[in-house]
Amino acid sequence: MSAAAATPVLAATGRRKTAVARVRLTEGSGTITINGRPFEEYLPTLQLQNTVLAPLQTVNSVNRFDLNVVVKGGGTNAQASAIRLGIARALTISDGELRKELKPHGFLRRDPRMKERKKAGRPGARKRFQFSKR
């Protein structure tokens, strides 16, 4: 039996707006790879990095798991939020008791806000063309 088969791989999906993140969680040393690039390189700002690490910090497992993430669509903020949801879901799959710690912080809730579609006969979703009385 190979070493890769011995360690369980947990997969979960996170979404935010049009961003979709597939997260693979394995036991390891805390290495995070996003789209084949190191975590710090893909998300350059500290705010985005903290968004992604928040569920791991909440359950004190920052250096316990290796993460391999494939994310596409959306902007960097939406991608970071999608990754955060995927990590939280993967952690609950690994240990159901962690759900009690993650849920009060809102890590298991998908943000439902989406861009509203443009309507016919209008320049945008809600905006109307300028009205001229005369």
TrEMBL record:
GO terms for molecular function: RNA binding; structural constituent of ribosome. Transmembrane segments: none annotated. Residues 115-134 have a biased composition (Basic residues). The keyword Ribosomal protein applies. One of its GO terms (biological process) is translation. Residues 104-134 are annotated as: Disordered. Keywords: Ribonucleoprotein, Ribosomal protein. Residues 104-114 have a biased composition (Basic and acidic residues). Pfam families: Ribosomal_S9. One of its GO terms (cellular component) is cytosolic small ribosomal subunit. The keyword Lyase does not apply. InterPro entries: Ribosomal_Su5_D2-typ_SF, Ribosomal_uS9, Ribosomal_uS9_bac/plastid, Ribosomal_uS9_CS, Ribsml_uS5_D2-typ_fold_subgr. Belongs to the universal ribosomal protein uS9 family. PANTHER family: RIBOSOMAL PROTEIN S9 (PTHR21569), SMALL RIBOSOMAL SUBUNIT PROTEIN US9M (PTHR21569:SF1). This is Small ribosomal subunit protein uS9. It comes from Haloferula luteola. The gene is rpsI.
